[in-house]
Design a protein that fits this description.
The protein has one domain (30-196). It is of the alpha+beta class and 201 residues long. The chain starts with 9 loop residues before the first helix and ends in a 5-residue tail after the last helix. The protein has helices spanning 10-17, 34-62, 95-115, 121-143, 178-196, and strands at 69-73, 77-84, 158-166, 171-172. Helices cover 50% and strands 12% of the residues. The protein has a 4-stranded antiparallel sheet with strand order 1-2-3-4. Helix 3 (95-115) runs antiparallel to helix 4 (121-143). The longest helix is centred in the N-terminal third of the chain and has 29 residues, at 34-62.
Length: 201
């Protein structure tokens, strides 16, 4: 007499019902998608290129001006040349710590992109912006020297030039650059994705 088969457990049925990469290609890891990889690399490369180009133009054109500054919007936006040996808001750390942290962060960004599902385009764009911004500032720290005449050689420094004042509260924001904008926007995109998908498997 044939033995009756027991019905599959609820947990096993739920596991079997979960879509796989073959069932839903959009859930496959991003590194398996040439399109996702190309878009990620293109955004990162474009961000780095824009950051380095704007730094070059700003420093090339403002070095001849008195005070190395120019007004764009009176009382709101100026371009002021500055070099920052620290990190966010000028906070200083040993150079080797900054370099090691930057390289570790860039490696983590690439790993997160590779592991993300290809359908999460917003997350991948945010990761690419973080990578591009980090690469732009890393270039400065490694290769830029003597950006401002008469000052100590800018070894390990980052070139900044965007000078913003918030008139409502009369607050002068620390001078920053395009790479910093990419980092902030990219991190905001990652945070938004995390909040929206925090319950995803």
């Amino acid at each position: 007499m044939a033995r009756a088969q027991s019905p599959p457990s609820r947990s096993r049925a739920k596991h079997d019902a979960r879509p796989t990469d073959e069932d839903d290609p959009a859930r496959a890891p991003a590194w398996r998608s040439p399109r996702a990889v190309a878009i990620f690399l293109a955004i990162a490369a474009a961000g780095t290129a824009v950051d380095l180009w704007t730094k070059h133009v700003a420093f090339d054109r403002l070095l001849g001006r008195e005070g190395w500054t120019a007004t764009v919007v009176d009382g709101l936006l100026r371009l002021t040349l500055s070099t920052n040996p620290g990190i966010v808001f000028g906070y200083r750390l040993p150079g080797w710590v900054v370099l090691a942290a930057t390289l570790a962060a860039m490696a983590a960004v690439v790993a997160l992109f590779a592991a993300s599902e290809r359908r999460f385009r917003g997350l991948q764009a945010g990761l690419a912006m973080v990578l591009g911004g980090a690469a732009g500032n890393l270039y400065d720290r490694l290769f830029v020297r003597g950006a401002l005449p008469g000052r100590q050689p800018a070894a390990g420094c980052v070139r900044d030039f965007i000078d913003v004042t918030i008139p409502v509260i009369d607050y002068h924001w620390p001078v920053f650059n395009v790479a910093d904008v990419l980092l902030v926007v990219g991190l905001a995109a990652i945070l938004l994705h995390t909040l929206r998908h925090r319950r995803s498997p």
